[in-house]
Design a protein that fits this description.
The chain is mainly α and about 325 residues long. The chain folds into two domains: about 5-170, no CATH class; about 185-325, no CATH class. Helix content is about 75%, strand content about 0%. It is globular, with a radius of gyration of 20 Å. The mean pLDDT is about 95.
């Protein structure tokens, strides 16, 4: 599908239908007024075509033919568009948040125009993306009118796709793909490494005092939705930046794949220190489990030669955690 010109628009239309239906169902199920739900849904629907763009070869090649300066302008403007729609529709527009979001979008979009690819430039680029996420600035820039609905995810997925497209279209020579559907070999590799990880992570979780089963597992529909959401957003983005880029870059720079695997896994664990779980901060126990999981994700990616295998391992791990553990 990614190699066919019409496939991108087919997926866009199908995605709009599914997402709109899900938004209506969620709003009714949770008694959310249409006036509050509509701006949130509209912003996510506008973001959707831009988010999946990085995963389709034909439209990406079309953008790659542009001058890089034009591409940077395109990335910046499309980064701001969903926020402007949402914030205007909710009557919360203000100039300072717009300027701050624009500064983030311009920094990501224009990075490789100002600092061409090099080990230092690449590491600083990844550090910038991580700093934006860990600062939780999107919680401020995307205030939610609906209790328990985090509109800040709109900022997260914007940053993911803008960063990925900046790498593909402006930096170039990226050692990872950004495709959504694993092939048969990648599914099998991901499943195999998930089976290897499960007893190790379970033992670590239990030994660290984190293990607590839910009184009742979540139902199959929630489990499936969780798996697909994690696979196509969380796992795809984290595996792309950690295993697809950082691990491959460290391996090439140091000529030591084992060092790259361990270093990437430790850094992956470190970014989970801020995960407020059981009231801990910094959360060393959860970061330890994340680092262990990162080793298996890295092994899956190295075995298959693609991040789609580690996406499967990652998504299955998080799904089991959310469905069965409290």
């Amino acid at each position: 599908m990614p190699t066919r010109r019409g496939s991108y628009w087919l997926v866009v239309v199908a995605g709009w239908i599914v997402l709109a239906g899900a938004a209506v169902a969620y709003a009714r199920l949770n008694s959310i007024p249409p006036a509050a739900a509509a701006p949130v849904a509209a912003a996510f629907l506008l973001e959707f075509p831009f988010y999946i763009l990085a995963g389709f070869d034909v439209p990406r090649r079309t953008l790659a033919a542009w001058k890089k300066e034009y591409t940077a302008v395109f990335l910046t403007l499309t980064s701001l568009a969903p926020w402007l729609l949402y914030i205007t529709a909710t009557g919360r527009f203000a100039l300072p948040p717009l300027l701050l979001l624009a500064a983030i979008a311009i920094s990501v979009s224009c990075w490789y125009l100002l600092w061409p690819a090099s080990p230092l430039s690449d590491l600083l680029f990844l550090a910038m993306l991580a700093a934006v996420i860990l600062s939780k600035i999107f919680n401020v820039l995307y205030p939610s009118p609906i209790p328990k609905v985090a509109v800040s995810y709109l900022g997260h997925i914007m940053l993911i796709r803008t960063g990925a497209l900046s790498l593909f279209l402006i930096r170039g020579n990226i050692p990872a793909s950004f495709h959504f559907i694993p092939n048969r070999r990648e599914w099998l590799t991901g499943l195999t490494h998930f089976a290897m990880l499960l007893p190790v992570a379970g033992a670590a979780y239990f030994a660290l005092g984190l293990f607590a089963l839910r009184p009742r597992p979540q139902n199959i529909a929630i489990a499936l939705g969780t798996f697909l959401g994690i696979l196509w957003v969380v796992a795809l983005s984290e595996e792309f930046f950690f295993r697809g880029l950082l691990q491959n870059w460290l391996s090439a720079w140091t000529r030591n794949s084992t060092f790259a695997l361990i270093a990437t896994s430790l850094l992956f664990g470190a970014v989970h220190l801020g995960f407020r779980f059981h009231g801990e901060y910094p959360n060393w126990r959860f970061a330890t489990v994340a680092a262990i999981a990162g080793l298996f994700y890295g092994l899956a990616a190295r075995k298959a030669g693609s991040i789609q295998a580690s996406m499967v391992t990652h998504a299955l791990t998080v799904t089991v955690w959310r469905v069965f553990l409290h």
